[in-house]
Write a structure and sequence with these properties.
This protein is of the alpha/beta class and about 375 residues long. It is about 30% helix and about 25% strand. The strands form three sheets. It has a nine-stranded mixed sheet, with helices on both faces. Strands 2-1-3-4-5 form a five-stranded mixed sheet, sandwiched between helices. Helix 3 packs parallel to helix 4 (about 115-120).
Length: about 375
């Protein structure tokens, strides 16, 4: 039997594999599976785009008869319920694997230990909790939606050297260089949805897509907090809504007067452009996030602007912060960031620091963000 060091080595590989399809497997999590026998990797699998087939089935199909008496390393407990496909626990049993090593048990009430029970009942050795902290970090978005009924929220801010996120009336202002901007596009590619406020949508006219070569199809759902339905029909978001979904979060009309007739007219025009209008008071963020979770959105990237960032922080709904600090100042008429590197919100811990050219990147996690209570 493999020792602890070998188990950790293969589980680390399974967890890395699981990251490949982040943001592309909703409503299922992206899971990694590696089939090993006598210290040799026979097959690998990661949850397919759209959520099926599951990682275990892909790896078992690749391994074939080689899976018999082998060990399967899986980043999340194999499913035990019949959905659109039979349970992965049954597939592992049928394949004749001798041992299954699991990083994280599944909090889904349809599983929640039942997959492990099925394997044990079939005489398969099971070990759990291998690299659990790393596994739960990789599965943080899925765990957040399952346990807390909301998406895992990443707040991204690009801040100038003098602590500004932009300049009043200037539209988009380049705060960081091209390498840092490509990193942001990579983050978009692994997120289910991206959110901005209407101020940013109107001032910057952003597209909010992933434009890295080869990853264009991984653009997230785009969400705008737009209480009064002011999203411009001529802007990039509305014009591209049929290619990449846009959800406009609007408030309820106050009365039945002429102003409300204009509101309904704007709604009809956005509908005609392919923009989905969802009426939910944008100021009630917990309810909004619950609604997004009910649609299978597990990871939400909040990109702007300063007031939206502050509102998520004030509501205690930020789980991770990606802070990019540029080398140049913005100066006069700058829009102040809600925080800077030296003055971070309480309860966040810096996890890593990197340099992208002249720009500084820092990642912070809320102290309990990636490990929701199970």
């Amino acid at each position: 039997m493999a020792g602890a060091a070998e188990d950790e080595r293969f589980m680390a590989a399974a967890i890395r594999l699981s990251l490949r399809n982040l943001g592309r497997t909703a409503t299922n999590p992206s899971v990694g599976c590696i089939i090993v026998r006598d210290g040799i990797v026979l097959a690998t699998g990661v949850t397919a785009l759209g959520g099926r087939p599951h990682a275990e089935r892909i790896a078992l199909a690749e391994a074939g008869e080689g899976a018999r008496c082998a060990t399967a390393y899986v980043s999340l407990e194999p499913c035990s319920h019949h959905g659109k496909t039979p349970p992965c626990a049954e597939a592992l049993i049928a394949a004749g694997v001798a041992r299954v090593v699991i990083s994280v048990t599944d909090p889904d009430e349809r599983v929640a230990g039942r997959g492990i029970e099925m394997l044990l009942a079939a005489g398969i050795a099971v070990d759990t909790g291998v690299l659990e902290a790393e596994g739960r970090r990789a599965l943080a978005a899925y765990l957040m939606r399952q346990v807390n009924n909301r998406p895992y929220v990443t707040l991204k801010l690009a801040v100038s050297s003098d602590g500004m996120v932009g300049r009043l009336g200037a539209g988009q202002v380049a705060v960081t260089g091209p390498v840092a901007r490509r990193q942001v596009h990579a983050l978009r590619a692994e997120s289910d949805a991206i959110l901005v406020g209407i101020g940013t949508a109107r001032a910057d006219d952003p597209e909010l897509t992933c434009r890295l070569p080869g990853l264009e199809e991984r653009s997230p759902v785009r969400i705008v907090l737009d209480r009064d339905l002011r999203l411009p029909l001529s802007g990039k978001l509305a014009r591209s809504a049929r290619a990449v979904p846009v959800i406009d979060i609007a408030g309820e009309p106050a009365s039945e007067d002429a102003a409300d007739a204009a509101f309904e007219a704007r709604r009809a025009a956005l509908d005609a452009a392919g923009v989905e209008v969802l009426q939910c008071d944008p100021r009630r963020l917990p309810e909004l996030l619950q609604g997004l979770a009910s649609r299978g959105i597990s990871s939400l990237l909040v990109e702007g602007g300063a007031s939206v960032a502050q509102s998520f922080l004030d509501a205690g709904l930020v789980d991770r912060i990606h802070l990019y600090t540029g080398a140049a100042p913005i100066g006069e008429d700058g829009v102040a960031s809600p925080f800077v590197s030296d003055v971070m919100p309480a309860g966040f811990t810096r996890r890593r620091t990197m340099r992208f050219g002249a720009d500084l990147f820092e990642e912070y996690e809320r102290d309990d963000a990636c490990l929701p209570a199970l």
